[in-house]
Design brief:
Blueprint lengths: L6 H12 L5 H8 L3 H13 L6 H5 L6 E9 L6 H4 L5 E6 L6 E7 L2 H13 L2 E8 L9 E3 L5 E2 L6 E2 L2 E7 L2 E5 L2 H13 L2
Antiparallel strand pairs: 1-3, 1-4, 2-3, 5-8, 6-7, 8-9
Helix pairs in contact: 2-3
The protein binds zinc ion.
């Protein structure tokens, strides 16, 4: 499949080649193209296979820094959908505890972290805490909690080691161990 690339597309591609995780807003301000147009063009190029996934363009994903950010919405979760438009956000969890949302982000450098926090503030998502991720082992389907105080959705204890996740229709739930995860499934999901 091929589409004609115009000058605008080329400009966007050149920026993405250097900084694949840059936000649409930033591209817009660098090129003088409106934010919706940038989004539209990127989407079109993704659909047509011109942009094949950002990690491919950047090269080695291991160069990226990963952070977990705990935050809270000022206005409930009205702006939740805006998070999905921020490219550096990898995953989003709805939680209870100090904040109401945890996002995982992958960025190139600390400067981008500053830009992200600024962007989050604008959509009224207040950052409570930031944790650099040391290891992210997706093979065991768990993430390392570090110093985070997340409560197990089943036994209510603070999770101190690996976090076991479960995606539910009401958002992701976190557990201290697989037994609690199984228990939760048996009590709340299988029975209904
Ligand atoms: Zn538990």
């Amino acid at each position: 499949m091929s589409i004609k690339l115009d000058e605008i597309d080329i400009k966007i591609l050149n920026i993405l080649k250097g900084k694949a995780r840059i936000s649409n807003r930033k591209i817009a301000s660098m090129t003088g193209i409106s934010v919706p147009t940038v989004g539209e063009r990127i989407k079109r190029m993704e659909i047509n296979g011109i942009i094949k996934g950002y990690t491919v363009i950047v090269g080695d994903e291991s160069d990226l820094l990963e952070f977990l950010i705990i935050g809270k919405w000022i206005d409930g979760r009205k702006n939740g959908v805006k998070l999905e438009k921020i490219k550096v956000i990898d995953e989003k969890y709805t939680v209870t505890g100090k904040g109401d949302t945890i996002i995982s982000v992958k960025i190139n450098n600390k400067e981008e972290l500053g830009d992200l926090i600024e962007e989050l503030n604008k959509i009224k998502f207040i950052v409570i805490d930031i944790y650099p991720v040391i290891s992210h082992n997706t093979n065991v389907k768990s993430i390392t909690a570090g110093r985070m105080s997340i409560k197990c959705s089943y036994c209510d204890n603070n999770i101190t080691g690996n976090v076991f996740k479960l995606k539910t229709v009401n958002g992701t739930r976190f557990f201290c161990c697989n037994t609690c995860r199984e228990g939760y499934i048996a009590r709340y999901i299988e029975k209904k």
